[in-house]
Amino acid sequence: MAAWELNGNVLIACNCDWGCPCNFNARPSRGHCEGGWIWIVEQGHVGEVRLDGLGLAVFADWPGAIHEGGGRAACYVDERADEAQREALTRTLRGELGGPWGLFIKTYDLPAPRPARFDVTLAAHQSRAAIADFIELELQAIRNPVTKAEVHPEVVLPEGLVVKHGALAASKVFRVRGGVEYDHSGQYAAFGRFAYS
Known about the structure:
The protein is mainly beta. Helices cover 9% and strands 47% of the residues. The chain has one domain.
């Protein structure tokens, strides 16, 4: 197996209530999970192949909790990747190297990745992402239901699979089409740093 290391920022969104019970080994808010992740690599490599600045994403639909499997997914790699980079990103998404993908791959059917344009603005609670015509994600701060004041909760997950420390948000817009399809605008979102090797 090639030596590898990836670090950067991840955007997360799903159909759960704010905080997402899956973070705490509980069942999803609605009994099933529809959501995914967009990773933007700040620095990283698989073997000798540098992946700095490239994006990869997975969005899935599970009939129950993620760990129960039976899901189907769609995945995307940054269209700017050259052939060697695309191969490295594909191996990553297929779980061949480990990381969170090494566990997720056991829970869903995953077709070949689609090369797509990643248009991502990382700006904390105002982060936005579009992946071609497939994914739209726009974050916003969670608001107190009584006062309407913004709140900024965070979560620390020492054993976290995707992030160890994440900032919680709401999705202002969250739409997925192509492969899997749903619209969960107004539900759970989060962002944070990742470091895998």
